[in-house]
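User: Fold this; tokens only.

Assistant: Input:
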Amino acid sequence: MFHLVLVFTIAIGLGLGASGNKSTGSVSVPSLLEGTSEGTGSLLDGTSEEVQQAAQDDWQPEDQTPTGKFTTATEVKPILSATRPNWVAVRDYDGKDLLYFTNLLAWRCGLHQVSYGVNGAAEQPLEFEECHLDTGQPNALTMETLMPFLSFDAGSINSLSVTVIYDDGTTDTATYQRSDILMP
């Protein structure tokens, strides 16, 4: 049974269609206004005005042909779904709460937007560096202009909500309590 699941998973990852041929046409993408069968929602299911505004922008979902470089939602969504408990971390450091988004940003090339809300506040978009598509490591964090963390007053982060908008138009959300994401 395990071998069958493994073969099926690899076939999906390679983009093989039902006929066994590699798919070269366009990928059917759910509407920005519809949810998905995987339990992820649409852009209009978000918890903040910014997420809803994203549905009204001129932005359109990107082509989901796998590149092998993890630059599409098709490639990064399984990883981020499996690592949802580790999307963010809080560290009490030097009299500040540092809120790290390192895990999410390591897969940002398959994302359109990341929003966060601290202690029940409305979510706001997280600014992050562009992908380096012309390099061998497009998801590498250079940290030349933007760092993968934000700084808050010490002990001020009690809870956190995060909404991810993938570049295929689907969303995923997570909520955290400080104790669940506090680093030693």
